Amino acid sequence: MSELLDIENIEVFYGPSQALFGVSLKVGEGEVVALMGRNGMGKTTTIRTLCRMSKQKAGRIEFAGCDIGSMPSHKVAQLGVGLVPEGRRCFANLTVEENLVAAARAGEWSLARVYELFPRLEERQGQMANTLSGGEQQMLAIGRALMTNPKLLVLDEATEGLAPVIREEIWRAVRELKATGQSILIVDKTLSELLPIADHCVILERGRTAWTGTPDALTPELADRYLGV
Amino acid sequence: MTAALFFEQLLNGLQFGVTLFLMAAGLTLVFGVMGLINLAHGSLYMVGAFACAAVAAATGSFWLGLVASIVAAAFAGALIEMTVIRRLYNRDHLDQVLATFALILIFSEGCRFIFGSFPLFLDVPAILAGPITLPGGLPYPIYRLSIIVVGGLVALGLYLLIAKTRLGIRIRAGEADREMIAALGVDIRTLYTIVFALGAGLAGFAGALVGALQSVQVGMGEPVLILAFVVIVIGGIGSIKGALIASILVGIVDTLGRVSLPSLFGLFMDPSAANSIGSSLSSMLIYVLMAVVLIFKPEGLVSQNG
Amino acid sequence: GGAKIGMITTLSGGGSGLGIDVRDGFMLAINQSDNKDVEVVIEDDARKPELAVQIADKMIQSEKVDILTGIIWSNLAMAVIPSATAQGKFYLSPNAGPSPLAGKGCHPNYFNVAWQNDNLHEAMGAYANSVGYKNSYILAPNYPAGKDALTGYKRFYEGDLAGEVYTKLGATDYAAEIAQIRASGADSVFFFLPGGMGIAFMKQYAASGVDIPVLGPAFSFDQGILGAVGDAALGVKNSSQWSKDLDNEANKAFVASFQEAYGRLPSLYASQGFDTANLILSALEGADVKDADAFRAALKVAEFDSVRGDFRFGNNQHPIQNIYVREVVKEGDVLTNKIVGLGLEQHQDAYAQECGM
Amino acid sequence: MTNPILEIKNLNKSFGALKATDDVSITLNAGEIHALIGPNGAGKSTLIKQICGGLSSDSGSVIFNGQDLAGLDVAERAQLGLGRTFQISSVIMEFSALRNVMLAVQANAGTSYRFFKNVRTDKKLVDRAMAILARVELEGRADVSAAELSHGERRQLEIALALALEPKAFLLDEPMAGMGPEGSKRLISFLDGLRKEAPILLIEHDMDAVFSLADRISVLVYGRVVASGTVDEIRNNPAVREAYLGETA
Amino acid sequence: MASLSRETLLNIFLTIGMLALPFVATAIDEPFYITLATRVAILGLAGVGLNLALGTGGLVSFGHAAFFGLGGYAAGILASHALNYTPIMESPFLIEGTNQMLIIWLVAIIVSGIGAYLIGLLSLRTSGVYFIMITLAFAQMIYYFAISWPAYGGEDGLSIYVRNAFPGVNTLDPQGFYFICFALLMAGIWLSATLKNSRFGAALQSARQNEERLSAVGVKPFNIKLTAFVISGMMTGLAGALFADLNRFVSPSMLSWHMSGEIMILVILGGVGRLYGPLAGAIIYIIFEFIFGGMTEHWQFFLGLVLLGVVLFARGGVIGLIAGRARHD
Ligand SMILES: Nc1ncnc2c1ncn2[C@@H]1O[C@H](COP(=O)(O)OP(=O)(O)OP(=O)(O)O)[C@@H](O)[C@H]1O
Ligand SMILES: Nc1ncnc2c1ncn2[C@@H]1O[C@H](COP(=O)(O)OP(=O)(O)OP(=O)(O)O)[C@@H](O)[C@H]1O
Ligand SMILES: [Mg+2]
Ligand SMILES: [Mg+2]
């Protein structure tokens, strides 16, 4: 299986304070990789760096065979990284539909398909994003990323704030996506859902990759040590 | 006031309003949609007027001058966007105010260096000169009527651009969250340069059109700037429709205010005092209007979120 | 003798054309003079009163000038002159002549070499009578100089007023006023709208098709500005104490040498700057500037060849002079003015008797 | 039956054609955790905003400790003892975690118009705030600015801010969101104890938390309370299962 | 604190420099430098006032010239009546002019405070750019009123002729007046530092950053902001009264939007929210004006370039450039 994403030993700073001290992770073509760790361990920072929203001081990032370590954000997205960011970040002053089409690129995912996945969004299509309920915003953020038809979908706590039924929907969608060969990098706290679909797990601790392996290899001891469960 | 005169003044108000809109159009685009306070908008307006006057004087053609005004201002706009403005999007409004204020100084003095301190000549083109008789026997300058038409077209064009095209959606998305729209694959940097140049071009275009009616001189952009801001704010930032409505409202209120306030006060006080108070009040009128609007609708007439 | 002169004038921003003309006229005279002991320091006030005050302080305290001059605008003049003269400096005004300084606030060290603000307007009022206008529509911006202007016009004008309007300072759209004028049944329009306001008004007036004759002071029809107004100004009568076609030797020499030195026709302001410098030079010939009384006396006799012909000071040290009526004409391609009559002869301003000197 | 601390009677709120809350009546009694669940967009947060005064109600009333809150604004209601957390963290970004809490402490004391004494050296404020941070296990991050906290830590800070107000009722809007699995577990036990201080109206999509904590559950769907009862009743309510729970339960 | 931060050192340096300046100026026989320094101190004080609203409270007022001008006119009107021995009003009760600075200051502070209260009451309903514009609008209203109001000179302004008096100090002596202004500047800086660090300051900073949160903890942001706005207006008004005395002249240009802009620029130039920012900004601005103004008539071009350089390359203003980015607290 060829590597789609290869992050090697990146170090990242926020101003003077260092957040990542050497994170490495790989996502293969068609793979689902779970990125795990306690609060504040650097999951989001890793993702921000992948999407070029933060710059690394050291280390290498390759995506689809290109060194993206010095590319601007939009180039990386155009190469096929679709981000569902932490905290939703919908465009507040745009309507639901405008949010979805703003950065859409041609491909399998169309407005119709997103609406099929999230009928709620269709109902609210003319509403300003900042007046949506929290869960609705979350759906919008996922739909928006799908509309860019990414090679690698990056989900940072994408099920936060969603009702159980919807969460199930999303997991179903993730499983479906996986079945169609979509590569996914995913951060989520619901291990019971996450582990069954992940091909690989990467656990961060204090800004370092502390453990990598298959979900089966994640023993209760390891889970307790790194995740506190 | 006779009915005919009242009608004429109403028309004048409308025309003044549309002129204001033309002056504000580029600013609405940059300020309302990109979220950048560009005090140098007036300078770009001036650049357009000077370019038009210079080219018209050299070639004898107002129309070539008009083209030159757009090109020169858009070019100047793109230039400052790439060298200065670009660094300001992530800054707060204060840095934008200071930087673009600095640009005003640079533009004004630069312009004076090139063109000298004396006002330039720019007149309306021959085919639009003089009055036309409106139905009802009212003579009205053709050029002013043309401005109403042009202003309307600009408003329509801008509205379609912002509200109906993907370009518009992306610009607005960029205003909400630049980092995010870039992370979704939109080259927001280049897009902003284009939009800024477009806004600058509009400013230059307005400078040329209005310059032909008023005067072309260093510093002509400053009063315009405040007026334009007033209009945009009354209208509701980011709304082209709001800006148009507000311009016309301001134009009409101002025009009717200045012709009627002195005589209104004359009804109950002696004429010279009435004249003085009436005209003082009328020069404050648009600010009063703005304050009243904002007190009752703190987000302008056409608020974006509703 | 020698002297150090501080010139505070408007050289940048809007309205800088006036300051540049005053400076150029002034420096032309200085350069033509044999007196090489005169030093001139020039600074730009950018038309801001606070800045003018600061520069005045600097020139007085730091540069230690003997004489100040150069201010264009009344409000700047009011900011600077009272305190400068109170500190014992001489001030010679090459342009502004606010009424307080001509009347109660007159000062032995303050000389006005241009005019009292009302003068040119008064002349236009007198002229309106002489050509038989009976119903004038008059307008000016709503600030003191504008009010002075209309007061000045009304002081001499004897007919009725079809309307009296104060516009917003800095306004550039006059459609409403022009419509009122058309409807008013006036037989003449008098306006005082300096700078860009006047250009805009004239252009819009010409395009409106209203053909009531227009009168105004020289400010809106002077050389620097006529080019921008264009043919819209042709035929307009305006009042001035100077014109380039005034027939005297000093003026002919001035016009020729100014054109040679700067490559453009001199304006009213240039002539005022030129006269101011020559007045100072003439006084320096006989008196030492450090001897204030002697120097003051030497200024007061005004023994120099003014480009406006006869020139003398009244009790308040403002000029008593002829004010002419000019008409805008075209000479070849160039718009300029031609004297067509005399508005007021040997005219003194209305505030002189309030002055205690 | 005890007198409820918070009593919501027939609240309504429409946004245009949409009825965000539709004749909602619920109560919160002393010592209890009353969970409010429902699909996304059901109107839960809207209800909280109405209770806290951030949104004006079209009709209905909110009675808190026997007092009708009509006409009071957000700040006045907070002073009366309504302590809320936001679904999307809302903290003072440039302040350290400690100063965020100090702000809440001073606000609770009603001393925001003291102009001269330096807060940094104000032992009363600092000590009290530190104690509260310790309760949410953020004392180690006291001097880190809120902007630099991770998402989950900010959620903890939200709770600290509510605690500092010593409220008479807590309104918590999805406190579990953004907490990792471990954090969620700890928060559950924390809230379990908290109900003794003041009752909690808890909005949550995390069913583990809801089922283990709630004394009562109300289910909001399209702005209406469609079911209300004990954990078991709700868990086994087929309508709720279909509209909301799915197979979770 | 064991070692002083660079910002503190810089502040101390500025204070000492300002203190020493008049003696140096006298020694090298350049009395004008004292006048310049007085101007720096006054504009600095106006800036300190604005900085409280703008830096600490996030209230970007583009209308502070209104308070500057109100203070100036309060001084000018009182002094001119004293000069002419005419009462300001006779009925219902007699108010006479005065040339005592202390009384004038008090009146200036009260008048500008009332102005700020009224303007704030209406403007604080809006926020962001709307706030910027509505404060501008109110200032413009006052400006146009002053221009066309003939009683006190209209656009021509009002001359005071002699500087007002202060017990025990010869105000006509530049040094004497300078130290009065400098002392007030220092008092202003002290007050704003104290306010910023107080409970009120904490609430104000929260109002700037997150009103929703502030009201959720039970403090009304509107009242906090209004209080800050009034204090800010008062300080700027006091500076206006001093400015009138410095120039012995007041005119509507003190009320113009250029003046608002200038005060704002001082603050940004020096560093928004920095204690000494306005002072540093005023020093730089005045020095540029002074040096370039005499050099070339195109000096504003260079001023523009310098300002641009500062915004683009010195984030946090000059103080930020020298002392590093603001720390979070
Ligand atoms: N903007 C920032 N400035 C400074 N430090 C930051 C910033 N954002 C995050 N950090 C710090 O970087 C570290 C990693 O944070 P990150 O957000 O990547 O964690 P996370 O694993 O995503 O946590 P969570 O599960 O809470 O979202 C944390 O210690 C955090 O305090
Ligand atoms: N200002 C508004 N204008 C229009 N619609 C609004 C506004 N505020 C909220 N809504 C709508 O009202 C409904 C209820 O929203 P609310 O935020 O209360 O939902 P919620 O129950 O908290 O959902 P979630 O669990 O997803 O947070 C949603 O459909 C939302 O889009
Ligand atoms: Mg995270
Ligand atoms: Mg919610």
Automatic annotation (TrEMBL), chain A:
The keyword Nucleotide-binding applies. PANTHER family: ABC TRANSPORTER ATP-BINDING PROTEIN, HIGH-AFFINITY BRANCHED-CHAIN AMINO ACID TRANSPORT ATP-BINDING PROTEIN LIVF. Coiled coil: none annotated. Residues 5-229 form the ABC transporter domain. The keyword Cytoplasm does not apply. One of its GO terms (molecular function) is ATP binding. The lineage of its organism: Bacteria, Pseudomonadati, Pseudomonadota, Alphaproteobacteria, Hyphomicrobiales. This is ABC transporter ATP-binding protein. SUPFAM superfamilies: P-loop containing nucleoside triphosphate hydrolases.
From TrEMBL, chain B:
CDD domains: TM_PBP1_LivH_like. Coiled coil: none annotated. It is a multi-pass membrane protein. It comes from Maritalea porphyrae. The keyword Transport applies. InterPro entries: ABC_transp_permease, BCAA_transport_permease. It is found in: Cell membrane. The chain crosses the membrane at residues 16-37, 44-64, 70-89, 101-122, 142-162, 190-213, 225-252, 273-296. Belongs to the binding-protein-dependent transport system permease family. LivHM subfamily. This is Branched-chain amino acid ABC transporter permease. Its main location: membrane. Pfam families: BPD_transp_2. Keywords: Amino-acid transport, Cell membrane, Membrane, Transmembrane, Transmembrane helix, Transport.
Automatic annotation (TrEMBL), chain D:
Residues 6-247 form the ABC transporter domain. GO terms for molecular function: ATP binding. Keywords: ATP-binding, Nucleotide-binding, Transport. It comes from the Bacteria. InterPro entries: AAA+_ATPase, ABC_AA/LPS_Transport, ABC_transporter-like_ATP-bd, BCA_ABC_TP_C, P-loop_NTPase. SMART domains: AAA. This is ABC transporter ATP-binding protein. It comes from Maritalea porphyrae.
From TrEMBL, chain E:
PANTHER family: ABC TRANSPORTER ATP-BINDING PROTEIN, HIGH-AFFINITY BRANCHED-CHAIN AMINO ACID TRANSPORT SYSTEM PERMEASE. It comes from Maritalea porphyrae. It comes from the Bacteria. The chain crosses the membrane at residues 9-28, 34-53, 65-83, 103-122, 129-152, 176-195, 222-243, 263-288, 300-323. Pfam families: BPD_transp_2. The keyword Plastid does not apply. Keywords: Cell membrane, Membrane, Transmembrane, Transmembrane helix. It is a multi-pass membrane protein. It is found in: Cell membrane. This is Branched-chain amino acid ABC transporter permease.
